[in-house]
Amino acid sequence: MTLTPAELTSAVSGGIGTSPQRPDGNLKVRGEFAYASDLWHEDMIWGATLRSPHPYARITSVDITEALKVPGVYAVLTHSDVPGRNLYGLEHKDQPVLAVDVVRYQGEPIALVGADHPETALRAMKKIVVTYDVLEPVVDMETAVDDTPLHPGGNLVRHVPIRRGAQDVTADVVVTGRYEVGMQDQAFLGPESGLAVPAVDGSVDLYIATQWLHVDRDQIAAALGLPQEQVRLTLSGVGGAFGGREDLSMQVHACLLALHTGKPVKMVYNREESFYGHVHRHPAVLYYEHGADHTGKLVYVRTRMYLDGGAYASSTPAVVANAATLGVGPYEVDNVTVDAYGVYTNNPPCGAMRGFGAVQAGFAYESQMDKLAEALGMSPVDVRVRNAMTEGSVMPTGQVVDSAAPVAQLLKLVQDKPLPAGTSSDIRELPGGVSNTTHGEGVVRGVGYAVGIKNICFSEGYDDYSTARVRVSMVNGSLAASVHTAACEVGQGLVTIMQQIVRTELGIQRVTVLPMDTTIGNGGSTSASRQTYVTGGAVKAACAVVRSRLDGRTDIGSEVIDETVEWRHRATEPLDPETGQGNAHVQYGFAAHRAVVDVDVELGLVRVVSLDCAQDVGRALNPQAVVGQIQGGSAQGLGLAVMEEIQTSGGKVRNPSFTDYLIPTVLDMPPMSIDVLELADPHAPYGIRGVGEPPTISSTPAIVAAIRAATGLALTRVPVRPEHLTGT
């Protein structure tokens, strides 16, 4: 007979619904985990990248003569040394591996150096002479479309229009606003790093910190002029990602140097180079108009959004689509007009970051909902509940939300939580108090609410799937299992989830997660809150096939049961290019926050006192990890609200360091009371709903709403800076 899932799991611990210890947890806590920057190889040399100091310039000459004379230098490479296609990109192949005749952003790679020591490589790099004809950069996202074309075809990357219902309807109460979102960095703690090892047959192995092994491989192979099977990638320890590793950084560069010199090549960015070497969150300008009747019911929403993609496309087309399709928020609106534009500029390239388009829109539409509440004389929660989406609601794209959408419930959960005690008399708990800058004078308190919506998994007809191989054999008289995927563990805990699924499905305690690499089929990107859904679905499906072969056996002798499954979620479809209609998304996730802040209106300092959250996760496969994701996403939202911004002037980055680019520390994060709802999605494995991104969307506007409540200021831009609060 075949064992039932209940019988299979009765003898094991650490299955789904529990929070077992992470297999990499102890090593990370003790500082013994090997990250990509720890890689080493005998006879290894070091690579370095020469980058443009200008946001926009023509290259008139590159002279590498003196650099080649530096003792210890093995190679100096330019674009002419790229054997294959000198262009790459996630959605558009528009970014040079090494610049040819023009640079389009400060930090664009121009030349590579391979040397016996990193200091030698840096000395040689300084001897490369590049002459430029400096050009006037295009930096304004609102006027970029009509400015100097930076690419063939102009500066418009994508325009997504959405038209639903009447386009000329009027309303009793109308509020408008213009909102800005600054450029946020993923600020992962482990810089870009990797090790390329050449093989005698002309192939190459790359050990790399990344988010998407197969897409990296495909772009690298094209640049090297090699068949894909001659480029092998293995995931190395990843010190955070959040979207910033979805694009290539030093992958091709390390491989080029390795194949050219015949030696293993290690590349590790320092923090400043990391700021130049990866994409960031799109800054945005968003215009909104909300119309409602006197009861607070929304009649229409109209918005025009501009998202600055910087010098190259990266994932701008998808980010623009997310901002557009989610641009009215988790609310029912019959009449919608959306125009979202993604543009090229000479600002730093922007691409994927946690929340992916929904963050920018979320700040704007939630600010509008607060403004509408004030105009109607309603509470911020009541106006949101009045318009809250539910299961069966219709999105602006015409898609029906066919699983739980507990928007009102989430809002009421955070509203009903006890408020923290009043402003403290302990100066250490006041804004700026540890600097002895205040004793409570000028400190006021505010409370704010926000709720957000995020699509889960890839959208618009993308063939989104993952591959999993599950293997069972006898080890020392007991069944043992291994699971192999190419899905990247970037710190989110996928390695733990895969073990939990195999234990649950097969009733086998001992589960080994094999290294992620390209010897197995594509696992897709670790982004879009998709890996537990898609790779978890693939592991579950592979286990089902293995279980059918086990057929109740507890002793399989020397036999090895080995099954590989490619698993897809239900199909999506492209948006109609004229109306933006279509079933573009797989699933929607929802989260709500209530923020309490103390603001020193004299100094312009903010302390977030509490940041409570309620989120529907479908089913918590690992409750502790779910709470950790909500806490982490909320921390990044706090950063965007009050401190994090890559500041640029004329296309140049002014603060490429953690000295001047500030991120929240443990001292900045307030207590969080978190309610986790488990309203299963019938279309998803185990009923799960992606967790990682929704809390980033609602935390930022909730904090800013609380600052507004405390100060009475409009605050239409994030991050909120001290000068925004003091008027200085």
TrEMBL record:
Q: Tell me the ranges covered by the Aldehyde oxidase/xanthine dehydrogenase a/b hammerhead domain, including all copies.
A: 30-136
Give one GO molecular function term.
Answer: oxidoreductase activity
Spans annotated as Disordered: 1-24
Pfam families linked to this entry:
Ald_Xan_dh_C (PF01315), MoCoBD_1 (PF02738), MoCoBD_2 (PF20256)
Q: Which domain of life is it from?
A: Bacteria
Which InterPro entries does the record cross-reference, listed alphabetically?
Ald_Oxase/Xan_DH_a/b (IPR000674), Ald_Oxase/Xan_DH_a/b_sf (IPR036856), Ald_Oxase/xanthine_DH-like (IPR016208), AldOxase/xan_DH_MoCoBD1 (IPR008274), AldOxase/xan_DH_MoCoBD2 (IPR046867), AldOxase/xan_DH_Mopterin-bd_sf (IPR037165)
What is the protein's name according to its record? Molybdopterin-dependent oxidoreductase
Annotated organism of origin: Lentzea alba
In the record, what lineage is assigned to the organism producing the protein?
Answer: Bacteria, Bacillati, Actinomycetota, Actinomycetes, Pseudonocardiales
